[in-house]
Amino acid sequence: MGKALIIGCGGVAQVTIHKCCQNSDVFSEIMIASRTKSKCDEIKAFLEAKNVKTKIHTAQVNADSVDELVALIKQFSPKIVINLALPYQDLTIMDACLETKVHYLDTANYEPPDTAKFEYKWQWEYRERFEKAGITAILGCGFDPGVTGIFSAYAMKHYFDEIYELDILDANAGDHGYPFATNFNPEINIREVTANGRYWQDGDWVETKPMEIKRVYDFPQIGEKDMYLLYHEELESLAKNIKGIKRIRFFMTFGQSYLTHLKCLENVGMTSIVPIEFDGKQIVPLQFLKAVLPDPATLGPRTKGKTNIGCIFQGVKDGKPLTYYIYNVCDHEECYREVQSQAISYTTGVPAMIGAMLVMNGAWQKSGVFNVEQLDPDPFMDALNKWGLPWVEDFSPVLVP
User: Fold this and answer.
1) Is 50 helix (H, G, I), strand (E, B) or coil?
2) Is pLDDT at 97 greater than 90 in this prediction?
3) DSSP at 196
4) Which of 17, 187, 208, 249 would you label with 337, given CA atoms 20 to 30 Å apart?
5) Dist CA 310 CA 171 (whole Å)
6) Given a cut of 80, is residue 325 above it in pLDDT?
């Protein structure tokens, strides 16, 4: 039993909050803190009306301010801080955890606000400081990154002597009915999709143009979908931590309507992160676009269909070649019925709760900064089945060319 401080109150945070309340044996008290306290109060009222056992507190905090964060942590005395704010705020929250000697967990790597760089280097530099403080920092504990790393650790532990190739496949066959909307934070999503692609090959990075490499894959329970090679942050850590790896690629599905809208917005400058002057004020076009697009947290009641996210491994066991595909299928409507959220937020929010639980109960409590594949995958894999993200194994999958 213990306390957790959850920073952020967007779509992912709402799922994690629901799941913490379902798991009241571990999370006896939570505090929800956000820049907009009214959002925290709304979800508190909603859950208290369901008579949850977890005691819920709320607070207003500016996650860019180490001093405000430290004051809040000292006031509440949590065992762990679950960072579900923006990736730009990872470092200030880590600084506050160091100062107060409290465990830390996030779902996305730090990004500087002024450049779309998806790298772990800033957070990895905290390793010695967290070791000296005797506290744990878990990086990227969503689905991708997160569960994809857990799947990789599980494959390494139980099935392979060496893994040579890994393809991570992320398919969303959900339909929200809007001409154009993003399933998670529009600013982060569009920065990710419009960046150059990259994949790991024979010890180095191969760069591609955005959406240059396309494949078609027949996903279980979803069917054939167009998918495109992107760079995704877990490739950086998995390239270091998977024994024998020669190639890692990441593919995500996109419909033609999404790509057409995105290209148009890019062509007119709306996806730019370079500030411009408008009405005597400096604005970032992408941040303005985020303000006019539908809030991903509101997509839940109107999204139908399923997601399928998983990993295809190729390698050897006892000198013999082996292929292995492990994936999760998540239903948007089932997620909404359970936690009032669509599946994209669900698949990120559930793993955040599980990772925090494993730190709280000691299974993942060790001093330093860790990506999830560096930790024991078995209790996490068991918890995925228990808490709503069951996985499926296939030992003769169709490979991606």
Assistant:
1) coil
2) yes
3) P
4) 187
5) 9
6) yes
Average pLDDT over residues 120-139: 97
**CB neighbour list of residue 85: distance below 8 Å, 6 or more residues apart:** 7, 8, 34, 63, 93
CB proximity list for 386: less than 8 A, separation 6 or greater: none
Which of helix, strand or coil describes residue 145? coil
Which residue's structure tokens are 């692609």? Answer: 197
Residue for token digits 């396309």? 214
Residue listed under structure tokens 């982060």: 188
Average pLDDT of the residues of the chain: 94
Residue type, 234: E
The CA dihedral of 257, 295, 304, 327, to the nearest 10 degrees, is: 90
Contacts of 289 (CB under 8 A, 6+ apart): 186, 190, 265, 270, 271
Find the DSSP H helices in 140-245: 147-158, 186-194, 234-241
DSSP 297: G
For residues 253-271, b (16+ Cβ closer than 10 Å) or e, as one string?
bbeeebeeebeebeeeeeb
Quickly list DSSP for 326-373. EEEEEEHHHHHHHHS--HHHHHHHHHHHHHHHHHHTSTT--SEEEEGG
Cis amide linkage into residue 296, ω under 30° from 0:
no
- For the stretch 45-55, pLDDT in tens is 999 999 999 99
pTM score = 0.92
Buried b (16+ CB within 10 A) or exposed e, 82-109: bbbbbbbbbbbbbbbbbebebbbbbbbb
CA–CA separation, 396 vs 180, rounded Å? 36
Does the pLDDT of residue 7 top 80, yes or no?
yes
**285 to 86, 268, 289: CA distances (angstroms):** 18, 10, 6
pLDDT of residue 115: 66
Among residues 330, 384, 391, 328, which one has the least CA distance to residue 358?
Answer: 384
pLDDT computed for residue 116 by the predictor: 60
Residue type, 21: C
DSSP-derived 3-state class of residue 27: strand
Residues 6+ apart with CB under 8 A from 51: none
